[in-house]
Amino acid sequence: MSAIAFEREVQFGDIRYPFHVQSGDRSWDEFARRMTELDADRFAVVTDEGVPADLVAAAETCLAAVAATAVFTVPNSEKAKNVETLDRLAEQVIGAGATRNTVIVALGGGLAGNVAGLLAALIFRGIRLVHLPTTLLGMSDSVLSLKQAVNSRIGKNHLGTFYTPVLVWNNLDFLSTLPPEEIRSALCETIKNVLGICPDRYDEVAAKLRPDAVYDMRTISEFIDLCVTAKISVMRLDHREKREALVLEYGHTVGHAAELLTGGQLRHGHAIGVGMLVAARVSCLLGLMDESDAEAHRILLERNGSPVALPGQLTVDEILAVVRRDNKRGYVPARPGAADMIVLEGLGRPHWVGDNIITQVDEDILRSAINSYLPEPSSGTTVAA
After folding, report:
1. What is the Cα Rg of the chain in Å?
2. Which of 19, 71, 269, 313 has the greatest number of beta carbons closer than 10 A?
3. What's the pLDDT tens digit per position in 205-237?
4. C-alpha dist (Å) from residue 328 to 22, 271, 324
5. Cα 292–259–85 angle (5° rounding)?
């Protein structure tokens, strides 16, 4: 297949940054040219242990031809996405000679992107950030948000800020070695965008999804472009994701809890996928959503080859305990015994309560919805709602 190259400008209000999608032999040359334009005194590449060594070496070689370059590696573990890792990394980067004219380059998936993004926002009160994602989830989801965060000891993404990159460079060739499970996980966020934002793309995406996760690069680029369009549509007037853009958190309330409780063994996208099923069940129990729209969730996830049940080792009480510390709390006054969630009235129709997209769901309703996606204790079989 011929090389793929397209550019989008991501714009949220007055915030703009270029978003490139490339493949082929010329991608590294073009990336070097763009980095030369930044006139940096040095590059600090932040990556994680899961990024293939040949990609790290290629990035270092490319950047070293432009300016002095050093690579800093963090553990490839959700448990390492914390303040301790950030503090150690800041000490290393500053100790290696970083200045206000240094550019942080985030090389990796969501973990490296978040740690590097928050590091760039904090060093000297902010130095430039470039995203060089190596995963489909990074390319299609995490780098399209300005949110940079790490976990606290008791919850996911509790500590962070909003920070804008100066450039996002997506090299599709990086995806050639990703395992199918990682592709499936990433596409759960694409499915979320279809269900919550652009249901007019439902049939198109349903036809393209494959449980074996074998896609050509043209199809992958189309998935990425869909996600860019979806995010821009809800973030154009809400770059801090406090109003209409909160729909991007659909499925994340229970999803984040499941991801955290399994220590990341349940991949982020898969966790969000099951979290959306739980949210759809909540909507049905509240009388907001038809069963056919809830079933539409399951259909896309199954066509993607994604799990449609929560891990059997989890309990409702464990999940609810984490949900009570969810980072969406506080958009509306707290109500004891209720969880703050994003729910839909139908595909592409978030439920608004007055002028707020947060719905306070009684815990007994949420408990019932979660139980629908946990195995029966007696038989170990999954109950489908």
Report:
1. 20
2. 269
3. 999 999 999 999 999 999 999 999 999 999 998
4. 35, 17, 10
5. 150
Question: What are the residues facing 19 on neighbouring strands?
Answer: 8, 168
Which distant-in-sequence residues (6+ apart) come within 8 Å of 361 by Cβ?
A: 282, 286, 338, 339, 340, 341, 343
Q: Are the C-beta atoms of 130 and 32 separated by less than 8 Å?
A: no
Q: What is the DSSP letter of 202?
A: H
The pair of three-digit structure tokens given for residue 205, joined into one six-digit string? 């995406």
DSSP label at 178? -
| pLDDT score recorded for residue 332 | 86
Query: Which pTM value belongs to this model?
Result: 0.90
- Could you read off the pLDDT of 245-285 as tens digits, one per residue? 999 999 999 999 999 899 889 999 999 999 999 999 999 99
CA distance 361 to 201: 29
pLDDT at 380 exceeding the cut of 80: no
Q: Which of 20, 306, 100 is nearest to 191 (CA)?
A: 306
33-42, 114-123, 137-146, 244-253: segment of lowest average pLDDT: 137-146
- How long, in residues, is the chain? 385
- Tokens 């472009």 locate to 225
Strands (E), the chain: 5-12, 15-22, 42-48, 68-74, 103-108, 128-133, 147-152, 155-162, 167-171, 338-341, 344-346, 349-350, 359-362
| Nearest Cα residue to 112 out of 47, 53, 178, 43 | 47
147 is catalytic: yes
Paired residues of 152 in beta bridges = 155
Catalytic-role residue among 81, 147, 156, 231 = 147
Among residues 60, 78, 222, 249, the one annotated as catalytic is 249
In this structure, of 52-61, 94-103, 332-341, the range with the lowest mean pLDDT score is 332-341
Residue of 248, 199, 190, 240 lying closest to 349 (CA atoms): 199
**Is 249 known to be catalytic?**
yes
Side chain identity, residue 106: A
